[in-house]
Design goal:
Layout lengths: L5 E5 L1 E2 H4 L10 E2 L2 H9 L3 E5 L6 H9 L3 E4 L23 H17 L3 E4 L1 H9 L4 E2 L2 H4 L21 E5 L4 H6 L3 E4 L6 E2 L6 E7 L4 E6 L6 E4 L11 H23 L1
Parallel strand pairs: 1-4, 1-5, 5-6, 6-13
Antiparallel strand pairs: 2-3, 7-10, 8-9, 8-11, 11-12, 12-13
Helix pairs in contact: 4-5
């Protein structure tokens, strides 16, 4: 029986995403769909607490994982990439930033498989020294609409716009095409691309929609959309998730032999 790789999925601070009763204790939460998606393709998902003040425990958690999945969520604190906050920057979660950036940087250094979606792609870019556009609608010239948020009446699996995919990329290997429709639930995006990363998909306005490691031996993929919502209906999406899990299996097996 093939090993089921353990995939770490960081949480987020409940108080950072909504107004809640003051007497509710500080809590860490995460959308269940990410865990179901990883389970559906054979992984064992593992919730990662935001112990940003305990790097020793965080490293111990990281070392036990075969791969990292960085999910969507609130905006990154612009201070994490050396910028002041624009008035259109939304809610932030600095402890989550700290934990995810640490895991991403360790994964980049170790070659551990990592897959980031929406905010997760942005985390990967910042971890590699890149920066973000804090609001695409006003700060990115010629932007199309990217913010098809569920709270505004859009379904989470609504295919909002097409992307162009680079030939020969991991994304191309999974999807088998150079153009595909994606859902879109973000208002921030990639500005300066991080070191050691390559852009592998773009929206019609030129905004980066996917990035990968420049290293062929490292599965590091970030996408700006939410593929976890398309896993059951799109074969290319399923193959992308399966490629991530296979890379995590290979990483686990190599570590066992080391």
């Amino acid at each position: 029986m093939q090993q089921r790789p353990v995939i770490g999925i960081p949480t987020q601070t409940l108080q950072s995403i909504d107004r809640i009763p003051e007497d509710l204790p500080a809590s860490w939460v995460m959308n269940q769909r990410y865990f179901h998606a990883c389970t559906e393709v054979g992984a064992v998902p593992w919730m990662v607490p935001l112990l940003d003040d305990d790097p020793e425990t965080l490293r111990a958690i990281y070392d036990r994982l075969d791969g990292i999945f960085l999910p969507g969520g609130v905006d990154m604190d612009p201070r994490s990439y050396g910028c002041a906050a624009h008035e259109l920057c939304g809610r932030t979660d600095p402890p989550r930033d700290a934990v995810e950036l640490a895991f991403a940087r360790w994964a980049i250094e170790d070659g551990k498989p990592v897959f980031g979606v929406c905010r997760g792609m942005q985390v990967l870019n910042v971890a590699a020294g890149g920066s973000l556009v804090q609001d695409c609608g006003t700060l990115y010239q010629g932007a199309i609409k990217h913010d098809y948020f569920p709270g505004a009446g859009w379904a989470r699996d609504y295919l909002a716009h097409p992307i162009r995919i680079a030939e020969g990329s991991r994304l191309h290997q999974a999807f088998g095409v150079t153009e595909a429709p994606v859902n879109s639930m973000h208002h921030q995006g990639i500005c300066d691309l991080g070191e050691g990363l390559v852009a592998t998909a773009w929206a019609t306005d030129g905004l980066v929609e996917a990035l990968e490691s420049a290293r062929e031996d490292h599965f590091l993929v970030g996408v700006q959309w939410h593929p976890e919502m398309l896993l059951d209906t799109d074969e290319g999406t399923r193959r992308l998730f399966e490629a991530f899990i296979e890379a995590a299996n290979q990483y686990h097996n190599a570590a066992m032999l080391a």
